[in-house]
Amino acid sequence: MSAGDDPITVTWMVVRVLDWERFAAEQWGREPVRLLGGVDSAGIDAGRACRAAVGAEPYAFPERMRAPGWRLSLGDPLRGDFALWAAVRDELVNLWWRVGWPLASVAAELAMGRGHTCALGPDHGPGRAGLCWVLRGEVSLRLAAGAAPATLELSGSAGDLLYWPPGFRVAESFPEAGGPAAVVLRLALPEGGGSGAGDPSGAGERAVLRSAAGLVPAPPPRAGSGLGPADRIRVTNHIVREGGAWAVNGHPLPEEFGKERAERLLDALPLGREADVGALCRAGGDAGANATLELLRALHRLRAVETLR
Fold this sequence. Notes:
By secondary structure, this protein is α+β, with helices and mostly antiparallel strands. It contains 8 helices and 18 strands. It has helices at about 20-25, 45-55, 60-65, 80-100, 205-210, 260-265, 275-285, 290-300, and strands at about 10, 10-15, 35, 70-75, 105-115, 115-120, 130-135, 140-145, 150-155, 160-165, 170-175, 180-190, 230-235, 240, 245-250, 250, 275, 305. Strands 2-3-10-7-12-5-4 form a 7-stranded mixed beta sheet. Strands 1-9-8-11-6 form a 5-stranded mixed beta sheet, with no helix packed on it. Strands 17-13-18 form a 3-stranded antiparallel beta sheet. Strand 8 (about 140-145) and strand 9 form a beta hairpin. It is elongated and about 70 Å long.
């Protein structure tokens, strides 16, 4: 790493499908890297991300801002679109399985702009690693370690995924007018490797954090569920158990259903299983059929299960 004024351009790799196992073995915790094609494999779209965060397409912002240089950033940008949140969460699950599950949350930010440079906020301080999906346009990051001037440059264009390990201060630059406004989704990552032992938070909090892969706050549950005995369901999201607590998609499972009944039902619902709601209710006996149905409705509201048409 040079201490001069001219930054060193970071190396890059071409990926068509993001190989988290290779990433964990070769890049995680080591050096910054540009992964060409890292966005495509995750299926994250600039238009959808902007609509979820601010209710508008990215091309609308240059006209609204009416300035030669501008930048707009929004925290927790994925809460308005469950499918988008789940796509990012699933990418993080693939990473955490390989480097260890963290005991802290992931900070997400959607940023867009043109002709503007600024230092990233405290969520992206030297104690955290970073992932940056370039969804539209181009972005350039200048990375500085310690008290030294910026000596590394990490640039990417639409479709790239940028990564830098802990230990860097980061300044983000969007290009001048002439091209499309840049749109990036950034994640500030805690260190992996926590087992949960000795963690001061309770089992319920750990279950919630793990079910979201740290990406909290999660999108809210459905407002209601019309699930009935005639429906057939599939388990579409993993239900996490920590100690005696259960959580799915960043939300705890309500405790009023009773621990034993919940454990019997949830043990019978591994990821991917299809089942008839009526059969599951009958398996709980006449006295427990209504409680089982309400528990299944709670799982439907939390998007752990979906109905099959």
